[in-house]
Amino acid sequence: ITELTESEVVTFEEQSANFMQDFYNYDAGAIFDVVATVDVTDTFLEASDMVGGQRFLQDNPLIVKYTTEITYRTSDPNLDAQSLVSEPFASEESRNFFVDQYLK
Residue 61: left (phi > 0), alpha (psi -120 to 50), or beta? Predict the structure, then answer.
């Protein structure tokens, strides 16, 4: 993939928000009533090494930069907002689940 179409950007935004909401709303934890929005701000290929004056793109990941807005309720007065945003993607298992179940 070298870029995302407008339709793919919309799908990424919707599915990313759904994943974050599902991560919290289907677990009866300290965080609930989560509503997330995702807005893609940029996409680009990760820089690659030049070989013989040519750039090889097939092995380079597509980087998607986005902003996230989350509203939620919590029973934990010490909740760290950064942890709230990063927790759904904290483990390799959850990242793989996100890609396999929400993006494919």
Answer: beta
Q: Grade residue 17 by pLDDT with cuts at 50, 70 and 90.
A: very high
Strands (E), 1-104: 31-45, 50-51, 54-55, 62-74
| C-alpha–C-alpha distance, residues 20 and 38, integer Å | 10
Tokens 């995302």, located at residue: 4
Q: What is the DSSP letter of 61?
A: P
CA separation for the pair 62, 81 (Å, rounded):
27
Contact between 79 and 30 under an 8 Å Cβ cutoff? The reply is: yes
Q: How confident is the model at residue 47 (pLDDT cuts 50, 70, 90)?
A: low
Instruction: Give yes or no for a contact between 51 and 37, defined as CB atoms under 8 angstroms apart.
Output: no
Q: How far apart are CA 73 and CA 75, in angstroms?
A: 7
Report the C-alpha gap between 29 and 19 in whole angstroms.
16
